[in-house]
Design a protein that fits this description.
It contains 6 helices and 4 strands, in the order E-H-H-H-E-H-E-H-E-H. The protein has helices spanning 17-28, 35-46, 54-68, 84-93, 110-127, 144-151, and strands spanning 5-10, 73-77, 98-103, 133-136.
C-alpha cells in the first residue's frame, strides 16, 4: 500500500497539574468512577508535577520517524491533546488521502487495539466525507524484531 502520511495514535496524558483532573475525567467517561477515586489517581500524577511522560516519549518517536520516513508524521491521542479528531481534520485540510496509523500499544486487547480502531472511525466521522483513509497497522507484540529486543 502507498501512503502519503503517517499518524501516531496514542492514549494521551496531562502535561501540567491543571490538566490532570480533566484528563482523568476523559479517560473514565461513561464508567461511573467515583470522584474520590479520581482524586486518588490524580495524586499519582501530581507527584510528577502533573506531567505524564507519554506525550514527550511520543514526540521523540515522531522526531525519529520523520528522520526515517519520507512522509509527514501526525500525532493524535484518544484522551488528551492533540486529540485524534482534531489531527485527522488537520490531515484532511492538508490534503492527506491515505495514512498509515501506528497505535503506540503493542498489544491486541480491547483498550490496546480495538478501541484504537474505534478512535480512528470516530475521527474520520468528525472529519467528514473528505476524511483521509486511515489504515491501522497490525499489533506488534509478536513481531520478531519487537520480541528480539526483549530476548536478546
Amino acid at each position: 500500500m502507498e501512503f502519503d502520511a503517517a499518524l501516531l495514535l496514542s492514549f494521551g496524558g496531562p502535561e501540567g497539574p491543571e490538566q490532570v483532573r480533566p484528563f482523568l475525567e476523559n479517560v473514565t467517561r461513561g464508567r461511573n468512577v467515583p470522584p474520590e477515586r479520581l482524586d486518588d489517581v490524580a495524586q499519582h500524577y501530581l507527584h510528577f508535577d502533573g506531567v505524564s511522560p507519554i506525550n514527550g516519549i511520543n514526540r521523540a518517536l515522531i522526531t525519529e520517524l520523520r528522520a526515517e520516513l519520507n512522509l509527514p508524521v501526525y500525532f493524535g491521542n484518544r484522551n488528551w491533546e492533540p486529540y485524534v479528531e482534531d489531527t485527522v481534520k488537520q490531515m484532511r485540510d492538508n490534503g492527506v488521502r491515505r495514512a498509515a496509523v501506528f497505535a503506540t500499544s503493542a498489544w491486541s486487547g480491547y483498550s490496546s487495539c480495538t478501541q484504537y480502531t474505534e478512535d480512528i472511525a470516530r475521527a474520520r466521522r468528525a472529519a467528514g466525507p473528505d476524511a483521509p483513509q486511515l489504515v491501522k497497522l497490525r499489533p506488534y507484540f509478536d513481531h520478531p524484531l519487537f520480541v528480539e529486543m526483549f530476548v536478546g
